[in-house]
Design a protein that fits this description.
Layout: H1 2-33, H2 40-47, E1 50-55, E2 57-58, E3 62-64, E4 70-71, H3 73-86, E5 92-97, H4 102-107, E6 113-114, H5 122-125, E7 128-144, E8 159-163, H6 167-175, E9 180-184, H7 187-195, E10 201-205, H8 206-215, E11 219-237, H9 241-256, H10 259-267, H11 269-272
Parallel strand pairs: 1-5, 1-6, 8-9, 8-10
Antiparallel strand pairs: 2-3, 3-4, 7-10, 7-11
Helix pairs in contact: 3-10
Amino acid sequence: MKNFKKITALLATLLLAVGITACDNNSKEAAKAEPTKVSAVDRIKQAGKVRIGVFSDKPPFGYVDQNGQSQGFDVEIAKDLSKDLLGDENKVEFVLVEAANRVEYLTSNKVDIILANFTVTPARQEVVDFAKPYMKVALGVASKDGAVITDIKELEDKTLLVNKGTTADAFFTKNYPNIKLLKFEQNTETFQALVDGRGDALAHDNTLLFAWAKENPGFTVGIKTLGEQDSIAGAVRKEDKDLLEWLNAETEKLSKDGSLKRAYEKTLLPVYGDTISEKDILVEYQ
Protein backbone atom coordinates (compact mmCIF):
# COMPACT_ATOMS: atom_id res chain seq x y z
CA MET A 1 0.00 0.00 0.00
CA LYS A 2 2.83 2.37 0.94
CA ASN A 3 4.54 1.63 -2.37
CA PHE A 4 1.31 2.40 -4.23
CA LYS A 5 1.02 5.79 -2.49
CA LYS A 6 4.65 6.58 -3.33
CA ILE A 7 4.12 5.68 -6.97
CA THR A 8 0.92 7.79 -7.11
CA ALA A 9 2.71 10.78 -5.57
CA LEU A 10 5.61 10.36 -7.97
CA LEU A 11 3.27 10.29 -10.97
CA ALA A 12 1.45 13.42 -9.74
CA THR A 13 4.75 15.24 -9.36
CA LEU A 14 5.85 14.15 -12.82
CA LEU A 15 2.58 15.29 -14.42
CA LEU A 16 2.83 18.65 -12.65
CA ALA A 17 6.36 19.12 -13.93
CA VAL A 18 5.30 18.26 -17.46
CA GLY A 19 2.41 20.73 -17.21
CA ILE A 20 4.65 23.54 -16.01
CA THR A 21 7.14 22.85 -18.81
CA ALA A 22 4.33 22.89 -21.37
CA CYS A 23 3.05 26.22 -20.02
CA ASP A 24 6.55 27.67 -20.17
CA ASN A 25 6.95 26.50 -23.76
CA ASN A 26 3.55 27.94 -24.70
CA SER A 27 4.48 31.28 -23.13
CA LYS A 28 7.75 31.34 -25.05
CA GLU A 29 5.99 30.51 -28.31
CA ALA A 30 3.40 33.23 -27.63
CA ALA A 31 6.18 35.73 -26.98
CA LYS A 32 7.76 34.79 -30.31
CA ALA A 33 4.41 35.14 -32.09
CA GLU A 34 3.76 38.58 -30.60
CA PRO A 35 6.87 40.74 -31.12
CA THR A 36 7.35 43.77 -28.91
CA LYS A 37 5.63 46.80 -30.40
CA VAL A 38 8.07 49.43 -31.63
CA SER A 39 7.27 53.01 -30.67
CA ALA A 40 6.34 55.43 -33.45
CA VAL A 41 9.49 57.51 -32.96
CA ASP A 42 11.70 54.39 -33.05
CA ARG A 43 9.82 53.12 -36.11
CA ILE A 44 10.58 56.36 -37.96
CA LYS A 45 14.23 56.26 -36.92
CA GLN A 46 14.55 52.65 -38.06
CA ALA A 47 13.00 53.58 -41.42
CA GLY A 48 15.44 56.47 -41.78
CA LYS A 49 12.72 58.82 -42.99
CA VAL A 50 9.60 60.58 -41.75
CA ARG A 51 6.56 60.62 -44.03
CA ILE A 52 4.74 63.93 -43.80
CA GLY A 53 1.51 64.77 -45.62
CA VAL A 54 1.43 68.19 -47.30
CA PHE A 55 -0.67 69.88 -49.97
CA SER A 56 0.40 70.05 -53.60
CA ASP A 57 -1.93 72.88 -54.65
CA LYS A 58 -2.32 75.30 -51.76
CA PRO A 59 0.32 78.04 -52.05
CA PRO A 60 1.86 79.55 -50.03
CA PHE A 61 1.33 76.72 -47.52
CA GLY A 62 2.01 73.63 -49.59
CA TYR A 63 2.52 73.33 -53.35
CA VAL A 64 4.74 71.71 -55.97
CA ASP A 65 6.98 74.11 -57.91
CA GLN A 66 7.94 73.96 -61.59
CA ASN A 67 10.84 71.66 -60.73
CA GLY A 68 8.56 69.17 -59.02
CA GLN A 69 9.73 70.13 -55.53
CA SER A 70 7.41 70.67 -52.55
CA GLN A 71 7.46 74.25 -51.27
CA GLY A 72 5.57 76.38 -48.78
CA PHE A 73 5.12 77.20 -45.11
CA ASP A 74 4.11 73.67 -44.03
CA VAL A 75 6.97 72.25 -46.08
CA GLU A 76 9.50 74.40 -44.23
CA ILE A 77 8.10 73.18 -40.91
CA ALA A 78 8.30 69.58 -42.13
CA LYS A 79 11.99 70.03 -42.94
CA ASP A 80 12.60 71.32 -39.41
CA LEU A 81 10.81 68.29 -37.97
CA SER A 82 12.96 65.95 -40.05
CA LYS A 83 16.17 67.71 -39.05
CA ASP A 84 15.36 67.55 -35.32
CA LEU A 85 14.07 63.97 -35.42
CA LEU A 86 16.51 62.37 -37.87
CA GLY A 87 19.38 64.86 -38.02
CA ASP A 88 18.77 65.76 -41.67
CA GLU A 89 16.04 67.90 -43.24
CA ASN A 90 16.33 65.84 -46.41
CA LYS A 91 15.11 62.69 -44.68
CA VAL A 92 11.51 63.86 -44.93
CA GLU A 93 9.35 62.14 -47.53
CA PHE A 94 6.62 64.50 -48.71
CA VAL A 95 3.34 62.71 -49.33
CA LEU A 96 0.89 64.79 -51.34
CA VAL A 97 -2.63 64.84 -49.89
CA GLU A 98 -5.96 66.53 -50.51
CA ALA A 99 -8.28 68.07 -47.95
CA ALA A 100 -10.74 65.17 -48.03
CA ASN A 101 -8.19 62.37 -47.52
CA ARG A 102 -5.93 63.78 -44.79
CA VAL A 103 -7.51 61.70 -42.01
CA GLU A 104 -7.57 58.55 -44.13
CA TYR A 105 -3.87 58.92 -45.00
CA LEU A 106 -3.07 58.95 -41.28
CA THR A 107 -5.33 56.12 -40.18
CA SER A 108 -4.19 53.87 -43.04
CA ASN A 109 -0.52 54.49 -42.18
CA LYS A 110 0.34 56.21 -45.45
CA VAL A 111 1.96 59.05 -43.48
CA ASP A 112 3.45 59.52 -40.02
CA ILE A 113 2.40 63.15 -39.61
CA ILE A 114 -0.07 65.43 -41.39
CA LEU A 115 0.95 69.09 -41.79
CA ALA A 116 -1.41 70.01 -44.63
CA ASN A 117 -2.88 73.20 -43.17
CA PHE A 118 -4.92 70.91 -40.90
CA THR A 119 -7.55 72.77 -38.85
CA VAL A 120 -8.34 71.30 -35.43
CA THR A 121 -12.01 70.31 -35.16
CA PRO A 122 -13.94 68.16 -32.65
CA ALA A 123 -14.92 65.67 -35.37
CA ARG A 124 -11.32 65.17 -36.45
CA GLN A 125 -10.13 64.90 -32.84
CA GLU A 126 -12.28 61.80 -32.45
CA VAL A 127 -10.22 60.04 -35.12
CA VAL A 128 -6.69 61.51 -34.90
CA ASP A 129 -4.60 63.29 -32.29
CA PHE A 130 -3.59 66.90 -32.89
CA ALA A 131 -0.40 68.33 -31.47
CA LYS A 132 -0.13 71.87 -30.12
CA PRO A 133 -1.15 74.42 -32.76
CA TYR A 134 1.34 76.51 -34.70
CA MET A 135 -1.03 78.75 -36.66
CA LYS A 136 -4.31 80.65 -36.29
CA VAL A 137 -7.03 80.67 -38.93
CA ALA A 138 -10.66 81.54 -39.59
CA LEU A 139 -12.95 81.15 -42.57
CA GLY A 140 -13.32 83.83 -45.22
CA VAL A 141 -15.26 84.33 -48.44
CA ALA A 142 -13.79 85.62 -51.71
CA SER A 143 -15.78 86.86 -54.70
CA LYS A 144 -15.33 88.75 -57.96
CA ASP A 145 -14.90 92.53 -58.00
CA GLY A 146 -18.12 94.22 -59.01
CA ALA A 147 -20.14 91.55 -57.21
CA VAL A 148 -18.32 91.36 -53.90
CA ILE A 149 -20.07 89.33 -51.20
CA THR A 150 -19.76 91.10 -47.85
CA ASP A 151 -22.48 89.33 -45.85
CA ILE A 152 -23.62 85.72 -45.62
CA LYS A 153 -27.20 86.77 -46.36
CA GLU A 154 -26.02 87.77 -49.84
CA LEU A 155 -25.18 84.12 -50.55
CA GLU A 156 -28.80 82.99 -50.44
CA ASP A 157 -29.95 81.76 -53.86
CA LYS A 158 -26.31 81.84 -55.00
CA THR A 159 -23.66 79.15 -55.50
CA LEU A 160 -20.80 78.93 -53.02
CA LEU A 161 -17.64 77.02 -53.97
CA VAL A 162 -15.91 74.89 -51.32
CA ASN A 163 -13.44 72.02 -51.04
CA LYS A 164 -14.79 68.69 -49.86
CA GLY A 165 -13.82 67.77 -46.33
CA THR A 166 -12.77 71.27 -45.29
CA THR A 167 -13.97 73.36 -42.36
CA ALA A 168 -15.75 75.60 -44.88
CA ASP A 169 -17.69 72.59 -46.19
CA ALA A 170 -18.66 71.52 -42.66
CA PHE A 171 -19.50 75.06 -41.52
CA PHE A 172 -21.90 75.90 -44.32
CA THR A 173 -23.43 72.43 -44.48
CA LYS A 174 -24.31 72.60 -40.79
CA ASN A 175 -25.21 76.26 -40.35
CA TYR A 176 -26.51 77.38 -43.75
CA PRO A 177 -28.21 74.44 -45.51
CA ASN A 178 -30.13 76.92 -47.70
CA ILE A 179 -26.93 78.02 -49.42
CA LYS A 180 -26.10 75.92 -52.48
CA LEU A 181 -22.63 74.40 -52.28
CA LEU A 182 -20.60 73.29 -55.29
CA LYS A 183 -17.81 71.04 -54.00
CA PHE A 184 -14.46 70.05 -55.48
CA GLU A 185 -11.68 67.70 -54.42
CA GLN A 186 -8.71 69.93 -55.22
CA ASN A 187 -7.96 73.57 -54.50
CA THR A 188 -6.98 74.26 -58.10
CA GLU A 189 -10.41 73.07 -59.27
CA THR A 190 -12.26 75.18 -56.72
CA PHE A 191 -10.43 78.41 -57.47
CA GLN A 192 -10.64 77.84 -61.22
CA ALA A 193 -14.40 77.46 -60.84
CA LEU A 194 -14.52 80.92 -59.26
CA VAL A 195 -12.42 82.39 -62.08
CA ASP A 196 -14.68 80.74 -64.65
CA GLY A 197 -17.82 82.08 -62.99
CA ARG A 198 -19.23 78.69 -62.03
CA GLY A 199 -19.85 80.03 -58.55
CA ASP A 200 -20.65 83.40 -57.02
CA ALA A 201 -18.14 83.13 -54.18
CA LEU A 202 -15.59 80.80 -52.63
CA ALA A 203 -15.23 79.95 -48.93
CA HIS A 204 -11.90 78.76 -47.54
CA ASP A 205 -9.31 79.55 -44.87
CA ASN A 206 -8.91 83.32 -44.77
CA THR A 207 -5.11 82.98 -44.65
CA LEU A 208 -5.24 81.26 -48.03
CA LEU A 209 -7.81 83.64 -49.51
CA PHE A 210 -5.79 86.75 -48.60
CA ALA A 211 -2.78 85.34 -50.46
CA TRP A 212 -4.80 84.16 -53.46
CA ALA A 213 -6.71 87.44 -53.88
CA LYS A 214 -3.48 89.42 -53.75
CA GLU A 215 -2.00 87.33 -56.56
CA ASN A 216 -5.23 87.32 -58.60
CA PRO A 217 -6.42 90.88 -59.31
CA GLY A 218 -10.15 91.14 -59.81
CA PHE A 219 -11.12 89.26 -56.67
CA THR A 220 -11.71 90.47 -53.11
CA VAL A 221 -12.06 88.78 -49.73
CA GLY A 222 -15.32 90.52 -48.85
CA ILE A 223 -15.95 88.46 -45.71
CA LYS A 224 -12.59 88.43 -43.94
CA THR A 225 -13.56 86.48 -40.82
CA LEU A 226 -16.37 84.00 -40.44
CA GLY A 227 -17.24 81.81 -37.49
CA GLU A 228 -14.81 81.24 -34.64
CA GLN A 229 -11.05 81.52 -34.87
CA ASP A 230 -9.55 78.06 -35.25
CA SER A 231 -6.11 76.54 -34.87
CA ILE A 232 -3.94 74.64 -37.32
CA ALA A 233 -1.71 71.86 -36.01
CA GLY A 234 0.17 68.75 -36.94
CA ALA A 235 -1.67 65.46 -36.43
CA VAL A 236 -0.72 61.84 -35.75
CA ARG A 237 -2.49 58.50 -35.27
CA LYS A 238 -4.25 57.88 -31.97
CA GLU A 239 -1.92 54.99 -31.14
CA ASP A 240 1.27 57.02 -31.73
CA LYS A 241 1.34 58.62 -28.29
CA ASP A 242 5.11 58.98 -28.13
CA LEU A 243 5.17 60.75 -31.49
CA LEU A 244 2.43 63.10 -30.28
CA GLU A 245 4.47 63.90 -27.17
CA TRP A 246 7.54 64.58 -29.32
CA LEU A 247 5.56 66.75 -31.75
CA ASN A 248 4.10 68.81 -28.90
CA ALA A 249 7.57 69.58 -27.55
CA GLU A 250 8.89 70.20 -31.08
CA THR A 251 6.13 72.70 -31.88
CA GLU A 252 7.02 74.74 -28.80
CA LYS A 253 10.71 74.55 -29.69
CA LEU A 254 10.17 75.80 -33.24
CA SER A 255 8.27 78.77 -31.87
CA LYS A 256 10.81 79.64 -29.18
CA ASP A 257 13.94 79.27 -31.33
CA GLY A 258 12.54 81.38 -34.18
CA SER A 259 12.08 78.56 -36.72
CA LEU A 260 8.39 79.32 -37.24
CA LYS A 261 9.19 82.99 -37.75
CA ARG A 262 11.87 82.14 -40.31
CA ALA A 263 9.44 79.89 -42.17
CA TYR A 264 6.88 82.71 -42.15
CA GLU A 265 9.38 85.26 -43.48
CA LYS A 266 10.52 82.90 -46.25
CA THR A 267 7.11 81.77 -47.50
CA LEU A 268 4.27 83.96 -46.23
CA LEU A 269 5.71 87.44 -45.80
CA PRO A 270 6.53 87.83 -49.54
CA VAL A 271 2.88 87.09 -50.27
CA TYR A 272 1.13 88.96 -47.46
CA GLY A 273 3.43 91.96 -47.24
CA ASP A 274 2.08 94.35 -44.64
CA THR A 275 -1.57 93.37 -45.22
CA ILE A 276 -1.39 90.78 -42.42
CA SER A 277 0.63 90.79 -39.22
CA GLU A 278 2.82 87.84 -38.33
CA LYS A 279 1.24 87.83 -34.85
CA ASP A 280 -2.17 87.30 -36.45
CA ILE A 281 -0.91 84.08 -38.03
CA LEU A 282 1.62 82.38 -35.75
CA VAL A 283 0.93 80.82 -32.36
CA GLU A 284 3.61 81.95 -29.94
CA TYR A 285 4.99 79.92 -27.02
CA GLN A 286 7.02 81.56 -24.28
